[in-house]
Design goal:
The protein is of the alpha+beta class and 285 residues long. It has helices spanning 6-9, 91-94, 100-104, 123-142, 147-190, 197-203, 208-219, 223-241, 246-252, 258-269, 273-284, and strands at residues 2-4, 15-20, 26-31, 34-48, 51-56, 59-63, 67-82, 119-120. The chain has 2 domains: 2-172, Regulatory protein AraC (Jelly Rolls, Sandwich); 191-285, Homeodomain-like (Arc Repressor Mutant, subunit A), CATH 1.10.10.60. Strands 1, 2, 3, 4, 5, 6, 7 and 8 form an 8-stranded mixed β-sheet that branches. It is elongated and about 90 Å long.
Length: 285
């Protein structure tokens, strides 16, 4: 691993914009400055000691820890290099921005080796980001009077833009989660009824495919399996507290096939409904 130094890149001002139109592979390295990276085009792999992930146009992340790039394919990067302590920006105020910490709390690894602070811009958002980059690049190149002030002001505006995008994403995720919670509550109240995936997905404001993916990731089971487990849980209550037959209980909790109910009960409870009833009622005496 090697180290890059601010004195070699930030000679006149503690802020610079370096554009890499065809980023080459670069091994694990670190630097004594902060780097905000925007992927403008191409593909590649970004890696660190914590893991790696694929890069594509629209990816945006901050790194001040060891990292590198491999397998670049026309990888086009815009790198903002800066030393926060020396750049005259009110960082204390910036930290109050919604979404700021989601970007600048750098390189927190996830269980899958990804990074929590990575932001992927949409095509429209990337176009707007490119506008900021082009303006700052032009100022840094032409160096008109007051360019340091103007470029820093634009950079501050760019940080506000990214923070706002991240904040909006978080708000949408929260709204999705709230809609998702309504679905869970609905399933638990209506598990004995005939529930259709399309109706549940619509309730969560998701497509069926996305609903299934989010449900499985959140609950650890597919929607169908969760409904079955909810029914089996309800059957346990009836087997313990009522004198209904196994057949009647199967119909009561939403099953139309008693054999299927028995198979699912054994799969989840590791015993038959009758065995469960006998064991628990004997313990109850």
């Amino acid at each position: 691993m090697f180290k890059l130094f601010a004195k070699d890149y930030l000679k006149q001002y503690p802020f610079s914009l370096e554009r890499q139109r065809n980023q080459l592979p670069i091994g694990l390295h670190t630097h004594d400055f902060t780097e905000l990276v925007v992927v403008l085009g191409g593909q590649g792999i970004h890696f660190s000691r914590s893991g790696e992930y694929e890069l594509r146009a629209g990816d945006c992340f901050v790194s001040n820890r060891p990292h590198g790039y491999k397998e670049p394919n026309h990888l086009h990067l815009a790198n903002f290099l800066f030393v926060p302590e020396k750049l005259n920006i009110p960082w204390i105020e910036a930290k109050k921005l919604n979404g700021y910490h989601l970007i600048f709390d750098t390189d927190k690894p996830t269980k899958k080796g990804g990074f929590n602070n990575r932001l992927r811009l949409t095509t429209t958002e990337l176009s707007k980001a490119s506008g900021f980059i082009n303006k700052i690049e032009r100022l840094m190149k032409l160096k008109p009077s007051g360019y340091e002030f103007n470029s820093t002001a634009l950079f501050m505006e760019f940080i506000c833009f990214l923070s706002d995008v991240h904040s909006q994403r978080l708000t949408k995720q929260l709204e999705s989660f709230q809609s998702f919670s309504k679905v869970i509550n609905y399933i638990e109240r209506h598990s004995a009824e005939s529930l259709k995936l399309g109706d549940l997905a619509e309730m969560a404001c998701m497509t069926v495919g996305r609903f299934i993916r989010v449900f499985r990731k959140t609950m650890g089971h597919t929607p169908i399996d969760y409904i079955i487990r909810q029914r089996i849980q309800n059957s346990c209550t009836l087997l313990y507290h009522s004198n209904l037959t196994v057949t009647n209980i199967a119909y009561e909790i939403g099953f139309t096939d008693t054999n299927y109910f028995a198979r699912q009960f054994r799969r989840i409870m590791q015993c038959s409904p009758s065995e469960f009833a006998s064991l628990n009622k004997s313990n109850k005496r």
